[in-house]
Amino acid sequence: MMEPDAGWGAAAAAAEPEQRSLASGEDQELSTLAGFFRTLYAVLFQPGEFFQNLGREGWAGPTAFALIVSSVGLLGALFWQFLVLAPVDGNLGETAKLLPFRGLGPGWLLALMAAAPGLVLANLGVGGICWWGSVALVGAGREFTPAWRIFCYAQAGMALAVIPFFGLLVAGIWVLALMYCGVKQVYGISAGGSLGALAIYLALQVLLALTLLLGLAGVLAGLGLLLLLG
User: Fold this and answer.
1) Considering the domain boundaries, does residue 224 fall inside one?
2) What domain count does the chain have?
3) Of the four, 77, 119, 155, 208, which is 20 to 30 A from 13 by CA?
4) How many CB atoms lie within 10 A of CB 75?
5) How far is CA 15 from CA 21, 48, 78, 182, in A?
6) Is 96 exposed, middle or buried (0-12, 13-18, 19+ CB in 10 A)?
7) 227 exposed, middle or buried (CB, 10 Å; 0-12, 13-18, 19+)?
8) Phi and psi (nearest 5°) for 206?
């Protein structure tokens, strides 16, 4: 669909030699914690500069960064819902009806909080593969690592999920905006190509969700039939 303006990494290659990546773990002068928070700030509030100077290699650092930020964000979102739902024992008030997990009781919320790192890791794996495929389909590049790095660092937007009650919505929009900025800056493709990659990614996510729901419905129907026959 869209070809890079001058091959993948055109924007990054155009950076000044003395400019250094703002990514966590790629500046040996900073401690791990200081590097993490510098990276978080840079991705959230200086995404153009961050992705323009983003290196091409390495997957462990971005993966750890995404896992930490996404887990904390999800835990924060679930915690706020737990505070609202726990006192009412399932009788939802007006505020609780606005929450994204309003159908779940306190017990389920606690279970989700315990499983948050595993859920985040699974989401990263599936989402990262979908993003890689989307980037490849618009003709930006077929290498997995650069697409994975963009996807992982874009998860910085999940830090906003700790905002009470509406944080997940804000975080989701911010993550998509960072993914758009990342693919545009790193691969040097046009705005149309970047939007195309984002649209394909969202379509793949919807398709996977529908497949999962249909599969689950089929399993439940099969179990119901077995119970009736038994």
Assistant:
1) yes
2) 1
3) 155
4) 18
5) 10, 12, 40, 15
6) middle
7) exposed
8) -65, -45
**pLDDT tens, per residue, the chain with 230 residues:** 444 444 444 444 444 344 556 665 555 566 788 889 999 999 999 999 999 988 777 889 999 999 999 999 888 887 877 776 555 444 545 544 545 555 555 666 677 777 788 889 999 999 999 999 999 999 988 899 999 999 999 999 999 988 887 888 899 999 999 999 999 999 999 999 999 999 999 999 999 889 888 887 887 777 777 777 76
- Six token digits for residue 155: 């998860």
Write out the two tokens for 108.
């389920």
Q: What is the DSSP string of 119-177?
A: HHHHHHHHHHHHHHHHHHHTTS---HHHHHHHHHHHGGGGGGGGSTTTHHHHHHHHHHH
What are 72's two structure tokens?
Answer: 């904390």
**Per-residue DSSP letter, 102:** T
In a domain, 3, yes or no: no
Q: Is residue 117 part of a domain?
A: yes
Residue 195 to residue 102: CA distance in whole angstroms: 32
Q: Which residue has the tokens 């689950």?
A: 216
Q: Is residue 5 assigned to a domain?
A: no
Instruction: Give the range of the structural domain holding residue 81, as residue numbers without chain letter.
Output: 10-229
**Rounded distance, CA 81 to CA 100, Å?**
9
